[in-house]
Amino acid sequence: MGASDKIIRILRSYLQGLGLLFTASLLLCPVLTRAQQLPQFSQYAFNSLHINPAYAGYKVDPFVQASYRSQFVSFPGSPETFSITGDMASRDGSMGFGASLLSDRLGASALQSVLLTYAYRIKTGDRSFLGLGVSAGTSEHSVDGNRLHPDDATDATIPMERVNLFIPNINSGLFFHSETLFAGLSVFNMVGRQNLENQDVVLAAHNLHYFFQLGGVFDLGVETTFKPSILIRDDFSGPLSYDINAMFLLNNRFWVGTSYRSSIRNEGNRKALVVLLDLFVTDYIRFGYAHDFNLTATNNYRNNSHELSIGYYLGDRVLKGRQNYKF
């Protein structure tokens, strides 16, 4: 097969996947509501389960990962996020199963969530697949009034103690991938704030959030692989944020790259440059680190967001074939 035939085949597979994603997005996008951004991770490039339930089982072998993120560490009450995720594929690879635990704290507010994930993969081409995924569970939103210091202590709207609310959580997504291209679309918090009785506790953190990712993997030769990608996040009330990523896989063992994060509807906010590293310490253990350089904050608080992750493969169905995971 000639080079032109390969390009045509790749483009046809790619457009087919995007067409399916676009059609499904019409079903996934109900009425838009106001919201804030969900807790974020910079290392989603190595574990997209954080942003798309349809990713579950992509790595085939059982994979467990723990991640910790600390932002603006010099500020009192700065955000801290911790998560544990696990996923695997069925024996024939047609289904994926996953679970995740998340703890996120910001000042006096906190979010704890537990999710179970299921994904089903449809073969759309010779080596292309479309995964359809859903995750469901529960979230606890809380505000600790003991950590607040209001100017007006008589304000009845400010809680004097810890108040919390348990609410259902449902997310859905699609994830298309071929040998060289991938795209994903997901909707988080499909049980919106408008359906909850105590809206003051959850604020706007439990409304609809949308994620769209697009990228590719290209062999540059000399044991070097290039992986460009973009991620768009939107809640249709605040700024639309986006990441532009460029990653390189060296010697089929070490990922290194950078990401530029900014927003469209608020150009003066949320600009950051991220340095990402991910190393296969062994065939079964991988370690990741991300450092966010805030480009818009004051000089004293520029270089103070860190993210660590460690993952472990529990099986070797794919590892025995000396294949690494590039999405």
UniProtKB/TrEMBL annotation:
It comes from the Bacteria. InterPro entries: PorP/SprF_Bacteroidetes (IPR019861). It holds the Pfam family PorP_SprF. NCBIfam families: T9SS_PorP_fam (TIGR03519). This is Bacteroidetes-specific membrane protein. It comes from Lunatimonas lonarensis.
